[in-house]
Amino acid sequence: MWDNTPVPATISPEVARRLAVRASLLTDPRPGPPDREGIMTVVRGLDRLQIDPTRAVERTHALVLWSRLGSYDQAEINVLLWDEHRLFEYAAWILPTESYGDEAFVMDHFATRDGAWEQRVRRWLATNDGFRRQILERLEAEGPLPSRDFSAPPDLSDWDSSGWTGGRNVSQMFELMGRGGEILIAGRHRGQRLWDLPARVMPAATRIVPPVADFADTKVVSAVRRLGFADERAIRVRVPYLGAADVTPAVARQVANGTLKPATMDGPIGPIEGYVLAAEFDALDEIAGRGWRPRTTLLSPFDPLIKDRERTEALFDFHFRMEIYVPKAQRKYGYFVLPILHGDRLIGRIDPVMDRRTGMLTITAVHVEDGAPIDDGSVGAAVGEAIRELGAFLGAREIVFGTLPEGWRAGLTGSSPSGAGA
């Protein structure tokens, strides 16, 4: 009996990195123009943008778009969200509206498992069901409102948590109702989320919850498309609410129908078995050769390319951890560090701070990774150009440099090789 199981191709770590960078839309040419259509291309290509309030440099969703599009008008994001409704906001993500069906699956499965946290959510919502119904009735009558317009009723029980949500009972009710899809974010006013009923935020026809197998198939293909090269662990963590019993068969189905091709990365710590989209599989020789179009740019600490820290180390040999919550004296690299992507390598990181009052972008330090081309002036110039592009995007009137590696100093600062730098 013939075995029709595809024989995995063997790819090098270099090709695996290039697949990852291409999938993250970080090669040349840029994925689109710096306008609304370009923003939509990026959000669709990455599946979603993470929202995080930290603004030591700029908010992460804005930086993720900048890394791919260059300077653009951030007001265009709000147009896409609240005027054209081509994007929507859910659970600290910005997503394309056409993906609302898949997110409805996530909403329907929110807090349905038997973990301790999920059980606590269900008990708390049931105990405070009167306040929940009050919110729905008032939104129906009055339209979009911020959570701060609601006062906690006397009998509202505390949301008991040791984290920042502890005792924030009103906002936590809105958050949990939003996660479950009972209410949705209809807009923002002075940074505050405005909540409304789903029927008034989303077209009813878009909320078609897919069956489990269809959801698993869609998410498996999406994960490999976004990662370039992905092992099953990386795929599984990107398929919410489903475990191996659903994800593994979905992978097998996509291999059987030819959508995915098995591939093995022969890495320094041993082989890693994974999968590549068929279209990318057919282009492996091109990616390994003259078809590779590299760029140099800076990445948000939450950029999709590096957010999976385990995968980042396996592919790029780059150890990266956020140091926001590390005491200042104990930080190794800085508060809000941006890794430097140069082609298919992460060659260093910068420690920037943007002072919007003075218009000054301070690059406190530039750190170079072991093995990076430190004596190559063209690399320093490419990194310097990326920093200047960042400054232009942020509206910086001045860029000030602190500690710099000597081999890159002239390129970073735009000074002559003998200059002292800025």
SSE inventory with pairings:
Blueprint: E1 9-11, H1 13-23, H2 36-46, E2 49-50, H3 60-69, H4 75-83, E3 87-90, E4 93-96, H5 100-108, H6 116-127, H7 129-142, H8 169-179, E5 184-189, E6 192-196, H9 198-201, H10 212-227, H11 232-236, H12 244-256, E7 260-267, E8 270-277, H13 278-281, H14 284-288, E9 296-298, H15 309-316, E10 338-342, E11 345-355, E12 360-368, H16 377-394, E13 398-403, H17 409-413
Parallel strand pairs: 1-7, 12-13
Antiparallel strand pairs: 2-4, 3-4, 5-6, 7-8, 9-10, 10-11, 11-12
* Outline type: globular
Number of helices: 17
Strands of the widest sheet, in order across it, are: 9-10-11-12-13
Q: Spans of 5+ residues with little confidence (pLDDT < 50)?
A: 416-422
Q: SSE order, as H and E?
A: EHHEHHEEHHHHEEHHHHEEHHEHEEEHEH
Distance between the termini: 71 Å
Relevant terms:
alpha+beta, five-stranded mixed β-sheet, three-stranded mixed β-sheet
